[in-house]
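Pinned message: reference record for Guanylate cyclase domain-containing protein
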Amino acid sequence: MTAIAMAEQERRQTVTVLFIDIVGFTSLVDQLDCAVVRALQRDYFSIVSEVVRDGGGVVEKYVGDAVMAVFGTGKTGFGPEVAAAAVRVGLSVQEALRGQLLAGRFAVRTRVGLATGDVIVDLVATRDFGHGMISGSVVSTAARLQAYAPHNTVVVCATTQTATGDSIAYQELPPVRVAGKPYPLDLWRALPPHRFPAAVPQLCGAAAA
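Predicted structure (tokens):
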């Protein structure tokens, strides 16, 4: 492929990446028939994807119980309002799942992590329902943040917090050291509207997949 063709297919862009997963998913599904697991996933993915789309994001992939979504890949580019929309989607997804019984039987808890940074956007993949559409270290950062989030919370990186601090309230959490990162990651917990900071929840160690 020529350099011109690559330039037409790919674009460097700042985005916000969101990861969400179900707490204790592996131990839950180990005891379930595969048809029940599929019904649980179908309900879960349906709720998450609807909230993501309504908030202006694109679902990039589903992996087991994890959903990765991207905000800011459109032609209008990235701005604080894009990052704020992504954070609000994280909060809205948890609110939508609260009280829901997936597959008619299972109430679940989730963790959400968001990170903002530069990626290469594959424009063809973006049009092809999002799968494999972005590349960049911000993806692994968002995944790590999600893995270390307290249960039923939304945590963001420092870049996301700086971009959205005027419109979303945050509670600073203790930094965490994670494998593969030479420095601790700062964590900020996004607070639902009209909620004041409370005691800091105990952080998870490694994520229970």
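Pinned by admin. Summary line: Residues 9-190 form a domain with the Alpha-Beta Plaits fold (CATH 3.30.70.1230).
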